[in-house]
Design goal:
Elements (H helix, E strand, L loop, with lengths): L1 E8 L8 H14 L16 E3 L8 E10 L11 H7 L5 E9 L10 E10 L5 H13 L4 E4 L2 E4 L4 E8 L6 E10 L2 E2 L2 H7 L7 E10 L6
Parallel strand pairs: 3-11
Antiparallel strand pairs: 1-3, 1-4, 2-3, 5-9, 5-11, 6-7, 8-9, 9-10
């Protein structure tokens, strides 16, 4: 059985890396008492797929992981969501658990874009930021380099909007960035183009958009 979990990752877990998060899910499933399925071969491993790596320090509000468990012949007294949540560490909150096709494509290949919310922790000029957004969106291309390879950041920016903030933060930046094979939009790159150090912001990934989302 293939379970698809939607979860949030915050608090100290913001600084848990991708590989460590994979191990964390393995331990969580074990603590929940669910029979985790393993791959075949000389080096079997737990069948766990995380949709997309989240940079250290980023908050994830709607992350996705697929877990394969062996069907239990007896019914469970608790739902999978309750069992897994009770076994989860602080900072990890499960919002949904769905059963999906076991033979569907790998979860990583299904992510087409992601949405982010950027909160400014230091004062910014709203007018200058708005002008920068207009310039960025009006650009034909934005050549950038990452790991020795060039790419066009502009083609990866699907949406970029300035919204009113809350409390002591007067404004927030909302963006939707494409995730393509060989090129994925990164919010810190967008902030760099706008002249804003990402260290002066709080970045939250609020949504992962899949090619074939679960129909409700």
């Amino acid at each position: 059985m293939r379970l698809r979990l939607t979860f949030s990752k915050s608090g100290a877990l913001r600084y848990t890396g991708h590989l460590d998060l994979h191990s964390l899910w393995e331990r969580t499933v074990r603590r929940a008492g669910l029979p985790l399925a393993y791959t075949q071969g000389f080096h079997p491993g737990p069948k766990i797929q995380l949709a997309s790596a989240l940079p250290l320090g980023f908050i994830g509000r709607a992350e996705i992981v697929d877990l394969w468990i062996i069907d239990s012949p007896t019914s469970l007294d608790q739902s999978y969501k309750e069992l897994l949540q009770s076994a989860s560490p602080p900072g990890l909150v499960i919002s949904a658990v769905d059963v999906v096709d076991e033979h569907a494509p790998a979860l990583q290949t299904q992510v087409v874009s992601a949405e982010y919310e950027v909160t400014f922790l230091e004062p910014v000029s709203t007018s200058m930021l708005a002008a920068g957004i207009t310039t960025l969106l009006g650009a034909a291309n934005l050549p950038r380099e990452r790991r020795g390879k060039t790419y066009d950041l502009r083609s990866l920016v699907e949406k970029l909007e300035l919204h009113p903030g809350e409390g002591s933060y007067p404004s927030q930046l909302h963006m939707r960035l494409a995730a393509r094979e060989g090129a994925t939009g990164r919010p810190e790159e967008v902030l760099d183009v706008l002249g804003i150090p990402f260290e002066t912001t709080r970045i939250e990934r609020t949504l992962l958009i899949l090619r074939n989302p679960i129909k409700t």
